[in-house]
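task queued by scheduler; priority normal; single chain, no ligands, no partner chains; default sampling; output format set to structure tokens
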Amino acid sequence: MPNVLTSHPLSRLAVLALGTALALGSAAAQTLTVGLEGDPPRLDPALSTTFIDTQVLNQIFDKLVDIDQNLKIIPGIAKSWEISKDGKTYTFHLASGLKFQDGTPLDAAAVVYTFNRNMTLAGSARKNELGTVKTVSAINPTTVRVELKQAFSPFLAVLTDRAGMIVSPTAAKKLGKDFANQPVGSGPFTFVSHKRGGSITLKANASYMAGVPKLSGLVYRPLDAGDVRYANLISGAVQVITAVSPNDMTKIAKNTDFSVVNASGLGYNGIWFNTTRPPFNNVAARRAVAATIDRQAITTQILEDTAVPGVGPFAPGTPAYTAETVPQPDLKAAQADMQKAGGNLTFTMLIFPGGSGTEVAQALQAMMAPANITVKIEQVEVGTLLSRLDKKDFDAVLAGWSGLADPDSNIYDWVATGGAYNFGGYSNKAVDSLLIKARTGATMAARKTDYQAAMALVNTDQPYVWLYHSNNIAATSKSVSGLVITPDGILRFKNASLK
């Protein structure tokens, strides 16, 4: 039986160091193909709002700083940094001689340009994340100074994600809105092409700062259905798949040519309600839906223990997590709230293609029926669904978040008024105040207290129903070695190879 690796987000790195199993030709062995659970809609760090985007973006772009297996912030493009005593000034010292994939210099001016682009570009999903930034300046070619409006404890952690990805100013200025179709960074792989619905092709960056990758190429194939990803892995059409459907994990684990990683993650999944229109502008309707749900049944029977029940945005083992009592389904409470909401409720729940969304949605549909709640399930292509979320053209959506290292990134933009991911239009000024206070807390203990108080209010208002925290799951041929998956769920291919 192949090794099944498990990892806690704060304990150790899950590394696929696998032996040779499939006989591949030497030419084919240079290009690794990944079956991805969807087609990334926005390959621009400023515009990206989906996890499948980040899987590809992390190969094309390097970041100012990154995280390790223990969620510790480590150097990236910035080899070191200092923070002023008042927490308002960050000085980054960049590695020297860096270049983008188009041959232009990656220097302090490029970092300043990227920050300003993230903060001003129309449609940027990074504006809120960088909302505390006052000024960014280049002190010299390898030194960048960032002045904040006020102390912001999560700032470094924010830069371990897309806000810290540095783009080529030359390419971004030249391409404008088309930059997402021809992204240029400084990462281990260079963008070649994106055929919508077909493939994304990358090639090794011959001038990569940490050394040329062992792979000459990396190809992503969007395969929405879990069984299709599984079939492609078994046939050898792809060498890696993410995510892996729970019902396929056992089959793969029994096949000695393959291995599975089932690693604890940082994110969550749940139901967003559109609080700006009927029926879910009525809090009683939101509470009625929440009261019908059996989280344990979902994680055990459908997700087959690849997730744990959750009632908040902080995954077990992460800094702001507090031991939670998972509520049991309460039909009487649901029926009582239904009477307040008018007696009957019918709504449409949007779901993304791929993964276990259909099975989870169908289970929720069955759980709600006894409370006179009728759920219509509508699967929508990723790009279209994101557009509908932006326009608030939905009743409810089954949506999740992959999670980041600092707790702020897992709550603020989701529930703060005007937050980048606050698709349901929820607003509570008391919640906003607590989350702003948590952002300036000097210690995690103090911040955790504010998060607990905020969540007490959020879970009363119920704009979002947290259902479970998913593990990060990937499967690979044993012809793959050196592939790393960190707690953020990103597969990192810079040291991967095929045998």
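post-processing summary
- The first strand starts at residue 4 and ends at 7.
- Residues 109 and 138 are 6 Å apart (CA to CA).
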